[in-house]
Amino acid sequence: MPRWRMPTCASAALAAAGLLLSGCANPSVGSANDDPTEPVTLKFWHGWATPGEVKAINDSIDRFEKLHPNIDVKATGNVSDETVNQALRAGGDKAPDVVSSFTTNNVGQYCDSGMWVNLDPFMKKTGLDKRKTFPKTLLDYTSYRGNQCALPLLADAFGMYYNKDAYAEAGIERPPRTMSEFKKAAEKLTVRGGSGGDKGSYKRVGFMPSFRSYQNSPDRLFAQWGPKYFDAEGRSRLADEPATYDFFKTAHQLADGQGGFKELEKFRLTFGDEMSSQNAFLTGKVAMLLDGEWRGLMLNEAKAKFNWGVAPLPVPDDQADTYGRGFITGTVAGIAHSSKHQNAAWELVRFLTADTKQVVSFANAIHNVPSTFAALKSPDLDADPTFRAFFDILENKHSKALPPSVNGGAYVVSLMDFAYSVEAGRVGDLRKGLEKLDEQIDADILQSKS
Questions:
Q1: How far apart are CA 345 and CA 129, in angstroms?
Q2: pLDDT score of 93 more than 90
Q3: Residues 380-389: what's their mean pLDDT?
Q4: Residue environment code for 236-266, b if the CB has 16+ CB neighbours within 10 A, otherwise e
Q5: Are the beta carbons of 337 and 28 closer than 8 angstroms?
Q6: 71-76 and 151-163 beta bridge pairing
Q7: Which of 10, 40, 108, 327 lies at 20 to 30 Å from 191 by C-alpha?
């Protein structure tokens, strides 16, 4: 379940939005009166695709079927949100009963449209207390306006990987905790390269601040400020959010301190593929990297030739007491509205998301963060301290997930496009630009509701 498979590009987000929001405001409802002890076959669609991921999910299903011998689960992997949405709109016997998604941004759509059923009645009936089972941040991104139409199925927390050898070389004793410390560390860690110390080239940068660099999407970095995206009426308020201005100012200062956007962009274009052996952190071109918990496993498998560590990403100086926070996302699971076996489907969803032994086994298998309080405290979890560092980020009360919206992740796509223009110097008046961005986001949401 590595997050590099999560669709983040504009085309994927908008395509998913279009599929979901066309003609499904009042979907037909399946049956919630089935007997979960009767023989039944459930169709489970998920997005995992690599051999290790597929084995882990199949092992999970085997464990479930041993506990529920009357339920036969037919799993289909490597299924995109778009394909799931098409099937749910069409309904019928070919549609899945249980669904999962890597795209938490779409939960608002799933809940608001009714495509995924509200799970609260199932939890009440079977005695599952969601607030005692799952961290609040995870419940926030699996619900929309009181409709808990999904539950977390492992999580992803983002922190900062850092090159310990580069730190020692630069005389840096510990990871930076505030943005002012971050800027100073990035400058110290930046090493110019080229013949004669050519200013236009680099051997290494401290931190690549470009919003196009690997996992550096603006929403993930912005989480360190704890922004409020929408007001009580659901209107975009980025222009009225003081943190927005400090965020873009800090990103600009990080770039200027290491040579400026244009020079950094030239260097960024020399980076290898994020998931390859030519990843810029792995090859030493970047000393500090924003990434998720899966990167540690990849660094170990690649036998990185330097010592590295993990720490939370720094926070604004005026929010130093929130240090330890980070951006949170993950996989979600739910029940299709059209399923005729919703009680049996709930047994599978409950097992995958809330059974402690299952959650621990799955987390260890694919190196993702456990999504329940009990699993996070389990002695059976992988003891790797760099992996466990992300547990603390997940449980930090200041950590943030993106707020759900009825138009899914379209507002994030709009923010990304705007951020690209800002860092490239194409936005002259930041406030006016943000006001237009708010107008665009509000118009998109209004159109989604029509």
A1: 18
A2: no
A3: 92
A4: bbbbebebbebbbebbbbbbebbbebebbbe
A5: yes
A6: unpaired
A7: 327
